[in-house]
Amino acid sequence: MPAPDFPAEVRSRLEEDAREVIARYPDSRSALLPLLHLVQAEEGYVTRTGVRFCAEMLGLTTAEVTAVATFYSMYRRKPSGEYQVGVCTNTLCAVMGGDAIFTELQEHLGLGNGETTEDGKVTLEHIECNAACDFAPVVMVNWEFFDNQTPQSAKQLVDDLRAGRTAEPTRGAPLCTFRETARILAGFPDERPGAVDATGGAGAPSLVGLRLAKGEAAPGRIVSPRSAPPQGADEQQPPAGGEAPAGHPSSHDAPHTTAASDPQHPAGPVSEEGE
Length: 275
Known about the structure:
Number of strands: 5
Largest sheet: 5 strands, mixed
CATH architecture of the domain at 83-199: 3-Layer(aba) Sandwich
């Protein structure tokens, strides 16, 4: 059974937008990704009708369009919330508390991964790394950043979203609905007053390395340089068992007299003679 078409007035409006998008590319097929965002902005997810529309506008089969729509996680294939709340559970965010945030949000909202609240406001999901490790753990709402979150702050965030209260991202543009976000991702301008000016630049944690390179920040303290033993090395030798001496940052960084797995081979700082 073929997919139904959009109502005539909606179809006319979408065709006008689609032609504008297609004109940006030398090959019309390259416009498929933004066109999928366009139909997602219309219906809140990529429906069979949206797939058919994209195929007809680009001269593709519905199978070709579906193959792309099912590959990328930013395209929804079923109705979802006005706010997509994604908790990063990749390595760094996970160990910094992302796993705990996701678990507590599931319990707080009564949702599983990818499920939506009954009021249609919030869809909860765990997401892959969004290159914001220096702000871990990170929660994203419609792809806007909420940095350095805790289970308590994340629960307050979803409560605010469901109650219609303002939720301000830590950085970047103001928050908008998922459909509005999809239209922006389709390549149309964000027409909200001040939205573009509010995007800002990189945050302070992201610029630490650059500041160090420019000599604008003090370098880190070298605990045990490899080229020479530290001052007071005699007093700093670890006790038996490799435990860190008092005042040493960690037993892992402390010099060891032998490798635990092979006592015949010394381990620890490399001497100049051994290099």
